[in-house]
Hints:
By secondary structure, the protein is an alpha+beta fold. Helices cover 39% and strands 20% of the residues. The strands form two sheets. The chain has a seven-stranded mixed sheet with strand order 8-5-1-2-3-12-11. The chain has a five-stranded mixed sheet with strand order 4-10-9-6-7. Helix 2 runs antiparallel to helix 3. The chain starts with a helix and ends with a helix. 23% of the residues are buried. Residues 279-307 have low confidence and may be disordered.
Amino acid sequence: MKLKWAFLVVVTTIVTVLTGCEPLMVLDPKGPQAQTQANDIMLSIWLMSFIVIVVFSLLVFMLIKYRASKQREDYEPPHIEGNKWVEAIIVGIPVLIVAFLSVVSVQSNYKVESTPVGYEDKEPLVIYASSSNWKWHFSYPEQDIETVNYLYIPADRPIEFKLYSFGPITSFWIPQLGGQKYAMSDMVTTLHLAADVPGEFMGRNANFSGKGFAENSFNVTAMNEAEFDEWVEEVKETAQPLTEEKFNELIEPGHLGQLTFTGTHLDFSPAPEGENGGHNHGTSQDEHSENQEDEHEPEDHSEHDSH
């Protein structure tokens, strides 16, 4: 009786707690990339639930059917040879499950790494998303503006994020629009996302990067194209220009609120891509060539020879 009441209390508690929970953001997708990943998650959950139910049902059946019985002390069970069909089933089914999930995962990876489905014919909006301790900088080269710790994007248009970091490795993640991707200091990674509908979403750094990691988040607002264009014009009319001195202050470790600037830091601190990739972060191609010439220029020994 006590066990029965304990079981009822546990079930009631779980049901009560779950009814007060909001839907998981990863299971409330607002874009095609997030929808693909949510479908994979639910497929895995249902498949694993089916496996668990079958296994526990077989366990209960075995415990009941082959439970201990009152046999005489000298009783010996009959010798039974292995059954090839049983062995084929217990080995073959797990192999098929793993193969099925592998195929699904590979197909999904190709989908989320490419332009979102349904947006192939639309020109993407390119946004450079760079992180520093502990803030996010969003550069809009097409619009020539930059924001800190907040992101405005047009809905129903593909977004091509160029990710990199001015500090440790971070992870750019907007759960309702797609999965996370790493931002590193010496290279640019590309993330394709899109918002099907206007709305407000939460974004954050999903990779631990020091004591300020917990507040390394940003707000995302998706709006229609006309509202986005109005916001861009308002920024150009009201925001202060971003200078190199100001940007150097912004990337110092610490937390900031939401800031808006005209111009981008890409003009004086380009992203580490193309010729500027790797250890030449922030150095233009001309400067890099000059440095290489200086390194390989032969020394003038005429003064030493005269002595």
